[in-house]
Automatic annotation (TrEMBL):
The keyword ATP-binding does not apply. CDD domains: MPP_Mre11_N (cd00840). It comes from the Bacteria. This is DNA repair exonuclease. Residues 1-198 form the Calcineurin-like phosphoesterase domain. It comes from Weissella hellenica. PANTHER family: COMPONENT OF ATP-DEPENDENT DSDNA EXONUCLEASE (PTHR30337), PHOSPHOESTERASE (PTHR30337:SF7). GO terms for molecular function: exonuclease activity. The keyword Nuclease applies. Keywords: Exonuclease, Hydrolase, Nuclease.
């Protein structure tokens, strides 16, 4: 038997973190998730899978707009035409507090209610499958839902668990916190997890893990994104990752000694041969102080954006500068003080004091609580210090 495990499509979610977007890029971004889902459905039809499971957050919100609804319904209809069944649970983003408000899904779709229920089906090869799952009907679930799941049904060939949530302690986490042990104790053949956007395996066999999001929607969701094609091999269900995201977030490092007016051309030439579209955070290593300054004041980013062409297979959305030479002549003791100061300044407590306590918007909070935000701040300060240091050394009275 063969099925597809995907999750966190987040249809209707705009790309985040792009400070400037040329008009030609807008539609490409806008349709990226739909393109990814379309590719998944193409693959499902070609591979003639027995069914597809979507592990929650198919929509980005509980009130998806018309385009997001149509994008999903149209793709589900293509699966219906190919007689492929789809099992859907709703997650913390697309939780359903009013089932009337959902679009009309084709008949091949089974939606799981708030209570854990089990569906059965028979595959083309006459294997029997049980699928157990539940949907969110509110944004947060602080209880462990695994306890509601039945033990493996020994009368079927395969038992699959469909679960949207995160590892954690009951009562502490907001996303149906569970322990790996609790999942293991159900003795299922496969746990199709959703919620975590990074592809992650909690257990190899029987498989327990996240397929990750299908399309990276901000700079933290780097690397290839897609779904798992799951196939039975003797007594095991084995997932194989298949990338389908048409746009990938990447970091590229470039070393250059060119003058400012040559840097844009040099860098662009390096990226012309990309096959799938990339959103690039560019890290430039250089000792040219004019280039480093142009990076700091965003002048270089503006030049890259101005040079971008609709035929490009990349877009540089961020540029950071890093001097090749180390800060010269700072004694070791200064390093110690530097590290200690950094630790004292760039920490959560300081952010709280600076006003994070007053922030109620979940997305903004997530951004500041993300470890990479603090890392970015630290490196920006360090670069700034190094640039001024090099500036001082080059200075001739
Ligand atoms: Mn989620």
């Amino acid at each position: 038997m063969k099925f597809i495990h995907a999750g966190d499509l987040h249809l209707g979610n705009p790309f985040g973190g792009l400070s400037i977007t040329p008009s030609w890029l807008k539609e490409k971004l806008h349709s990226a998730t739909q393109v990814a889902v379309h590719r998944l459905v193409d693959d499902a039809i070609v591979a003639a899978v027995d069914f597809v499971v979507l592990a929650g957050d198919s929509f980005n919100t509980t009130t998806p707009d018309a385009r997001a609804q149509l994008d999903l319904v149209n793709e589900l209809q293509r699966l219906a035409d190919a007689k492929i069944h789809v099992y859907i649970i709703f997650g913390n983003h697309d939780y359903v507090n009013n089932w009337q408000r959902l679009p009309t899904f084709p008949d091949n779709v089974t939606l799981f209610p708030a209570e854990v229920t089990t569906q059965q089906l028979q595959t083309a090869n006459h294997e029997t499958v049980a699928i157990s799952g539940f949907s969110y009907t509110q944004r947060h679930i602080s209880t462990n839902q695994v306890t509601q799941f039945p033990m493996k049904d020994t009368s079927v060939d395969w038992h699959i668990g469909l679960y949207h949530g995160a590892l954690g302690e009951a009562g502490v986490g907001d996303y149906a916190p569970f322990s790996l042990q609790a999942l293991q104790q159900k003795h299922y053949d496969y746990w199709a997890l959703g919620h975590i956007h990074v592809r992650e395996t909690l257990q190899e066999q029987p498989f327990i893990g996240y397929s990750g999001s299908i399309q990276g929607l901000d700079k933290t969701e780097t690397g290839s994104k897609g779904y798992y094609m799951v196939e039975s091999h003797s007594q095991q269900l084995v997932p194989t990752f298949t990338p389908v995201a048409p746009i990938t977030w990447v970091t590229e490092k470039v070393q250059t000694d060119r003058d400012l007016h040559m840097v844009v051309q040099q860098v662009r030439e390096q990226f012309v041969l990309k096959e799938e579209f990339e959103l690039i955070a560019l890290q430039i290593e250089t000792d040219q102080t004019t280039v480093l300054s142009a990076i700091t004041n965003q002048q270089l980013l503006a030049q890259f954006v101005a040079a971008a062409q609709p035929s490009d297979m990349f877009f540089i959305y961020d540029v950071t500068g890093h001097p090749k030479q180390k800060i010269a002549g700072l004694p070791a003791v200064a390093d110690q003080y530097w590290s200690a100061t950094v630790a004292n300044v760039f920490n959560l407590e300081q952010l709280q004091k600076l006003g994070l306590k007053q922030v109620t918007d979940g997305d903004v909070l997530d951004y500041f609580l993300d470890a990479s935000t603090l890392t970015d701040l630290k490196s920006a300060v360090q670069t700034q210090l190094q640039v001024s240091q090099i500036g001082d050394e080059n200075h001739v009275d």
